[in-house]
Design brief:
Blueprint lengths: L1 H4 L2 H11 L2 H14 L9 H6 L9 H26 L12 H8 L2 H19 L6 H29 L3 H5 L22 H5 L11 E5 L2 E4 L8 H31 L10 H23 L3 H15 L21 E2 L2 H7 L2 H21 L9 E7 L3 H18 L3 H4 L1 E6 L1 H16 L5 H7 L4 H12 L6 E3 L4 E3 L2 H12 L12 H5 L5 E2 L4 E2 L5 E3 L10 E3 L3 E2 L1 E3 H4 L10 H8 L9 E3 L1 E2 L2 E4 L9 H10 L1 H7 L2 E8 L15 H34 L4 E7 L16 H10 L3 H14 L1
Parallel strand pairs: 3-15, 4-5, 4-17, 5-8, 10-13, 17-18
Antiparallel strand pairs: 1-2, 6-7, 9-16, 11-12, 14-16
């Protein structure tokens, strides 16, 4: 047991567990991702197990993932060497010291590679088109990428690092000779500190791995001049610091070309690069400040945070198409009353009734039978919601011979659902026949480029600008979100609000209300191509529930707002897509519509309430089609074991789990009340994804092939088929 305890790999592992908490946390996070213990709801494990490059999962995508994991492993080795090397001074006497250190420090990385391989085969064995040879090629590509970078790094250090004997030209057997005075590299180990013995204690090591399969007895270093040993280790650390700086610079350089699709590496690779950069920064701080590293690190965070309050470093995210350089609008109650005056409400109602008349004319039949009016509510849920909404609209529209979209008056909702709906609406406006190509477009990966932009641009610096056609903005992950959405959809959504004014007015397409949440005060910011002051008040001139974007920012060219920017505001998920700032005083901060109304049902009810008399007289009833990326009122059958920790965090976690159910209950109440005051029939049709654990789909901007299949097949589930048949009967 003593041999095992004083074995160099054991000592390094114990030191990581005992002292290097942050390094250990990084590895725990990675292991939890790979074994699908953490981040499953947001699909993070799938980013590692099914990495996409150029919208394909193949040998090369795993090669890139392996390369990035190799960068992280080398950053881990280098950081460990810088922080721990002085406690194991015998390595200064070895040739190829860093290489031997890496071999002995590889316990955790080696276990990770093995666990990753096992999880990879388990993951693909559960896929529909599983092939053991194909999966083996994926793992082989991963190992090649990993190995190539590690070998390249080892080669660099073998060429630059020198042992005690090489550095001072000491012949073997004459180690105790006289040596010149030395000026050391690291300020933590100055000559005075060496003389007074102010050095970290040396850990005992009796044996080490000389090579992967060869063990040797550790050479005693106590008889060597301590100052010389420190000089050797400092020379190694100098090379390590230069190497880390070079890798860091390469990552930033690649970020300049992030708009080119070939530089959009897998999202998991971006995560690994991000962790690698953190390790590099931490090791650099520790190398220079040692015992003061934690206070310095905290001071650095406070300092950087303070600097970002100044305008040059405080790059706020914009929406595109509007003017941020003109005078900002004053946001107060006086302004809200001005843009929502009784006169404006009457004018807007009159204009919208003309739209309703055009809708009625379009739906006129020979029998003069009154048509049903349809409202589509689509939930958020990232790309799964986009894909589900697009597929549902196409499927039902075909099943009803085009009646669905022809009879739809208004589309509301949040996040991904609205992206899928707006893409379908644009194709409908163009008269394009929906094909498999369009399904591929709406499900193409968006997470890889966004993650890469966060890593190489947003965290460190935002230097690049672009022109949206009229105004200049800074490139960030908001720009990347829209840029990739344009690429994926063949740029057919590259339009402004004004471009949809006439098609909506003439009832060629349904109206769309995009309603992100203003986090400053909880209001809805309602974005529409039409004037809709009537949507902003619950009671006359007293309670403002919504705020009309077009009128509030009229002086900022609101009607020129890009539709993709409106959709991005509506789908702002923390950390992935940034909070949007609007040119008002004070600046309004805008986030996902799902914060307040994930389905947009409240907006539909408000529209119905405003025009209830016209609807009652000119339609045979209202149908609200709800497209949900999760089943409503999901009941948990699991009984959690109560514990002290659960009693502390339970109230918060339980509330979070129940949030959607509470919203569903409130939504149901609103619909029941609507039936009471609406003088015509109201029916609710619900299409949803299954809630079974095995068929749950991650909440992010990335879908794997198996998930696409689950979404496509969900429309054939008994409950969904029953709802579709009910809808067809109502329309007939």
């Amino acid at each position: 047991m003593k041999r095992l305890f004083y074995f160099f790999p054991t000592q390094l592992l114990l030191y990581h567990i005992k002292r290097n908490y942050l390094f250990s946390i990084f590895w725990v996070i990675l292991f939890s991702f790979v074994i699908e213990y953490c981040g499953v709801k947001y699909g993070i494990p799938y980013l590692f197990l099914s990495p996409e490059y150029l919208n394909k999962v193949n040998f090369f995508s795993f090669l890139l993932l392996g390369l990035s994991v190799g960068i992280f492993i080398m950053a881990f080795h280098i950081a460990s060497y810088i922080i721990m090397g002085y406690r194991f001074r015998f390595i200064a006497t070895l040739s190829s010291a860093f290489f031997k250190f890496c071999i002995n420090n590889s316990t955790i990385p080696l276990v990770f590679l093995i666990v990753f391989g096992i999880r990879l085969f388990i993951f693909y064995s559960n896929q529909t088109h599983f092939s053991i040879n194909e999966t083996a090629s994926y793992y082989f590509g991963f190992l090649i990428g990993n190995t190539v970078f590690i070998l390249f790094s080892i080669f660099y250090f073998n060429q630059t690092n020198k042992s005690l004997f090489k550095l001072f030209g000491i012949p073997i057997g004459k180690e105790n000779g006289t040596h010149p005075k030395i000026k050391l590299f690291s300020p933590s180990f100055s000559r005075k500190k060496v003389e007074r013995g102010a050095l970290p204690g040396e850990s005992e090591v009796r044996s080490y791995l000389y090579s992967p399969f060869k063990v040797r007895i550790a050479r005693k270093s106590s008889h060597y001049n301590t100052e010389i040993l420190m000089k050797v280790l400092n020379q190694h650390h100098h090379n390590a610091a230069f190497y880390l700086l070079a890798i860091f610079s390469i990552i930033l350089f690649i970020g300049i070309f992030r708009d080119f699709r070939y530089f959009m590496i897998p999202a998991a690779s971006s995560i690994m690069l991000l962790l690698s950069m953190f390790l590099m920064i931490i090791s650099a701080i520790h190398s220079w400040f040692r015992g003061w590293s934690i206070p310095v690190f905290l001071l650095l965070i406070v300092g950087v945070n303070y600097l970002t309050t100044f305008k040059p470093l405080n790059s706020r995210n914009h929406v595109y198409g509007i003017n941020y350089d003109t005078t900002r609008v004053i946001f107060n109650t006086t302004k809200l009353k001005e843009i929502s005056s009784t006169k404006k409400i009457k004018e807007d109602k009159k204009q919208s009734i003309e739209i309703l008349k055009n809708w009625k004319e379009k739906n006129k039949t020979i029998s003069e039978k009154k048509p049903k009016m349809i409202f589509i509510n689509c939930s958020g849920g990232g790309m799964r919601a986009s894909y589900l909404t697009f597929h549902t609209l196409n499927y039902i529209n075909n099943a009803t011979n085009g009646d669905l979209f022809k009879k739809t008056q208004l589309i509301t909702g949040s996040s991904g659902g609205m992206i899928g709906a707006c893409y379908f609406r644009e194709l409908y406006l163009r008269g394009d026949s929906i094909s498999e190509k369009h399904y591929q477009n709406i499900s193409k990966d968006m997470l890889n480029p966004i993650s890469f932009t966060i890593t190489v641009n947003d965290i460190l610096m935002r230097l690049q600008k672009f022109n949206d056609g009229k105004y200049i903005h800074t490139k960030d992950r908001g720009f990347t979100f829209e840029h990739i959405l344009h690429q994926n959809t063949d740029s057919i959504l590259n339009k402004s609000l004004n471009d949809y004014y006439l098609p909506e007015k003439n009832a060629e397409i349904p109206m769309v209300f995009i309603s992100p949440t203003i986090t400053n005060n909880g209001h809805l910011l309602i974005v529409s191509s039409q004037k809709i002051a009537y949507m902003t008040q619950i009671t006359d001139n007293s309670y403002f529930d919504g705020i009309e974007f077009s009128r509030l920012f009229a002086q900022q060219d609101a009607q020129n707002l890009k539709i993709t920017s409106a959709l991005r505001m509506n789908a702002t998920f923390p950390y992935i897509s940034p909070v949007v700032y609007l040119p008002s005083k004070p600046m309004l901060e805008v986030m996902d519509a799902g914060l307040k109304d994930n389905l947009g049902t409240d907006l539909s009810i408000q529209f119905i309430r405003t025009f209830k008399e016209w609807i009652s007289q000119n339609t045979s009833g209202v149908i609200i089609l709800q497209i949900r990326s999760r089943e409503r009122m999901v009941l948990s059958e699991k009984q959690y074991t109560k514990s002290f920790l659960h009693s502390i965090i339970g109230p918060f976690s339980d509330f979070n789990k129940s949030w959607e159910n509470m919203n569903d209950l409130e939504r149901d109440k609103s619909l029941i009340y609507t039936k009471d005051w609406l003088n015509t029939r109201l029916d609710v049709i619900t299409i949803s994804l299954p809630s079974e654990k095995k068929q749950k789909i991650a909440l992010n901007w990335h879908l794997i092939e198996n998930e696409k299949g689950i979404i496509r097949n969900a429309i054939e589930l008994p409950n969904n088929k029953e709802e579709i048949n009910k809808l067809k009967e109502l329309l007939n």
